[in-house]
């Protein structure tokens, strides 16, 4: 049996940031990353909101913060871009210290019980190459047919280096459509002898959660990625929550067969449809928390939310995770 408690990740950053930001996040080509320059206070407040909701792990607002994107959209110098990315970690750290100052002694005794995890954890968000193109191709990975490994690494390397040097606890290589892009990033880290801890999370096909958005089998992706000793987590994000169970069945089996101790991490979106030019659909969908117990039973070690999942849902997931950990004597 796993001896480490299940941890809770935060929810979608853009939806929560949008409530306190000076611009419309969904209409901005840099999405949440522009706020690192224009709305630093709102970034910290958004992190704090998720910490108050009970998140053990928060992610920096760097999903779309590539140095190339920041230079082109904000007219910054390379050094200024690096400073902005480094500052994203400071903004998350500020939220953690504000949050800790709000806690009572009970909080810290609970923290002691969940050691060795240092909580809250700050994860540096790394979105896929395709987000830079602003054409939705990050959801298909089609750009992988056209770009070279050099292009991919050129896009990712500086942000990776800056986040590592800023001492994030782990890198979240997330919403990745294709295994080959992930391998390029992992090889790059290896080539630099950087033993940075990472989790890798894929976006999946809507109609076939056994495949990444680009078409790789998730079991192949698990086998490939789990060979890298610095990969601590493997999972999926920004998919419909109904597809998380089928994904976990496949990956839990692959994990058992490989006798791997990689943590399985799942953080789907709210389950609505993104309509380009319009936003999220208004349809009624089952609440994310109705799925959560099934995910835990299927072996999820870290759960949370992606787009349109907010603090209210994270608070409900907190209760479910606490019940689960309590029953198993983990807290
Ligand atoms: Zn998302």
UniProtKB/TrEMBL annotation:
<keyword id="KW-0479">Metal-binding</keyword>
<dbReference type="InterPro" id="IPR017226">
    <property type="entry name" value="BHMT-like"/>
</dbReference>
<feature type="binding site">
    <location>
        <position position="306"/>
    </location>
    <ligand>
        <name>Zn(2+)</name>
    </ligand>
</feature>
<feature type="binding site">
    <location>
        <position position="238"/>
    </location>
    <ligand>
        <name>Zn(2+)</name>
    </ligand>
</feature>
<keyword id="KW-0862">Zinc</keyword>
<comment type="pathway">
    <text>Amino-acid biosynthesis; L-methionine biosynthesis via de novo pathway.</text>
</comment>
<protein>
    <recommendedName>
        <fullName>Hcy-binding domain-containing protein</fullName>
    </recommendedName>
</protein>
<dbReference type="Pfam" id="PF02574">
    <property type="entry name" value="S-methyl_trans"/>
</dbReference>
<feature type="domain" description="Hcy-binding">
    <location>
        <begin position="1"/>
        <end position="321"/>
    </location>
</feature>
<feature type="binding site">
    <location>
        <position position="307"/>
    </location>
    <ligand>
        <name>Zn(2+)</name>
    </ligand>
</feature>
<keyword id="KW-0489">Methyltransferase</keyword>
<keyword id="KW-0808">Transferase</keyword>
<dbReference type="InterPro" id="IPR003726">
    <property type="entry name" value="HCY_dom"/>
</dbReference>
<dbReference type="InterPro" id="IPR051486">
    <property type="entry name" value="Hcy_S-methyltransferase"/>
</dbReference>
<dbReference type="InterPro" id="IPR036589">
    <property type="entry name" value="HCY_dom_sf"/>
</dbReference>
């Amino acid at each position: 049996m796993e001896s480490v408690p299940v941890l809770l990740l935060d929810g979608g950053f853009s939806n929560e940031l949008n409530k306190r930001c000076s611009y419309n996040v969904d209409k901005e080509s840099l999405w949440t990353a522009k706020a690192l320059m224009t709305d630093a206070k709102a970034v910290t407040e958004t992190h704090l909101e998720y910490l108050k909701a009970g998140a053990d792990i928060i992610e920096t607002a760097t999903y779309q913060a590539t140095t190339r994107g920041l230079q082109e959209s904000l007219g910054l110098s390379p050094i200024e871009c690096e400073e902005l990315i480094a500052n994203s970690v400071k903004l998350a750290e500020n939220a953690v210290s504000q949050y800790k100052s709000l806690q009572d002694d009970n909080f810290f005794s609970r923290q002691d019980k969940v050691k060795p995890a240092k909580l809250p954890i700050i994860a540096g968000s790394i979105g896929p190459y395709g987000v830079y193109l602003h054409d939705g191709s990050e959801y298909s990975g089609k750009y992988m047919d056209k770009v070279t490994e050099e292009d991919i690494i050129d896009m990712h390397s500086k942000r990776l280096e800056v986040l590592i040097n800023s001492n994030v606890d782990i890198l979240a290589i997330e919403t990745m459509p294709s295994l080959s892009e992930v391998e390029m990033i992992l090889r790059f880290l290896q080539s630099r002898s950087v033993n940075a801890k990472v989790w890798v999370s894929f976006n999946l096909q809507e109609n076939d959660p056994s495949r990444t958005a680009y078409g790789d089998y998730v079991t192949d992706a698990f086998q490939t990625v789990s060979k890298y000793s610095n990969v601590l987590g493997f999972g999926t994000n920004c998919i419909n929550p109904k597809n998380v169970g089928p994904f976990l069945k496949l990956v839990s089996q692959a994990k058992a067969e490989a006798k791997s101790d990689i943590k399985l991490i799942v953080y789907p979106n709210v389950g609505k449809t993104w309509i380009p030019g319009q936003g999220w659909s208004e349809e009624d969908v089952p609440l994310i928390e109705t799925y959560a117990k099934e995910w835990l039973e299927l072996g999820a070690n870290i759960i949370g939310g992606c787009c349109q999942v907010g603090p209210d849902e994270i608070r409900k997931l907190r209760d479910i995770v606490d019940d689960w950990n309590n029953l198993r004597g983990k807290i």
